[in-house]
Amino acid sequence: MERETAKHVWISELLSGSPLQQPDEASTIILPNGTTAGRVRIYATAVSTEELIIDDGTGSILVRTFEKPFNVQIGDFVLVIGRPRIYNEQCYILGEIVKKTDIKWLKIKEKTNPKEQDPIAIIKALDKGEGADYNEIAEKIGEDKITHLLAIGEAFETRPGKIKILE
User: In 10 A of CB 12, how many CB atoms?
Assistant: First the structure.
């Protein structure tokens, strides 16, 4: 089994995402943009160190580990790589790597990370009035995003193979 690449996410995306539990697989979170995240990378500031709580300006989240304590102080800018988990309806990160870093890394990450296109805008652009073709949408944004939009009620099928955005 290959190790999943850690995706750069904002804490607010994790907190507003929905869990995806599949048998025989690690739990993942479906993010609001429709992508899935099994491992995440977050740049944030430590706001509590008794239980490590980090804040990236969009929200705060608990970071847990079962091996060793974190060597960070309140106010330190940290890089956290870990797996998002949900326990008792509370989202937290099972930390694999937690280390102090320079805040400049966040600015570099923002410049090098290409912006993802909005899946709703893509579907609207492909829609000629009776709905956009499922296969065309899947090529542009992926089937997992289509499934997510259908599940949360943002999109619906007008007929088999045609997807339309709820307006």
Answer: 15
The C-alpha atoms of residue 145 and residue 149 are separated, in whole angstroms, by 6
Per the CB < 8 A criterion, the answer to whether 31 and 17 are in contact is yes
Is 0.70 topped by the overall pTM? no
* Encoded tokens for 30: 């479906």
Is the CB of residue 78 less than 8 Å from the CB of residue 46? yes
CA atoms within 13 A on the CB side of 44: 27
Q: Which whole number is the average pLDDT over 22-37?
A: 75
Output the six-digit token pair for 126. Answer: 């492909």
Q: Which residues contact 141 (CB under 8 A, 6 or more apart)?
A: 34, 117, 119, 122, 123
User: Given this model, what pLDDT does residue 22 score?
Assistant: 64
- Spatial CB neighbours of 51, under 8 Å, sequence gap ≥ 6: 62, 64
Question: What structural domains and CATH numbers belong to the chain?
Answer: 7-112 (2.40.50.140), 119-165 (no CATH)
Q: Torsion over CA of 39, 42, 46 and 50, rounded to 10 degrees?
A: 0
Report yes or no: 148 and 30 within 8 Å, Cβ to Cβ: yes
Pull the structure tokens for residue 117: 């296109």
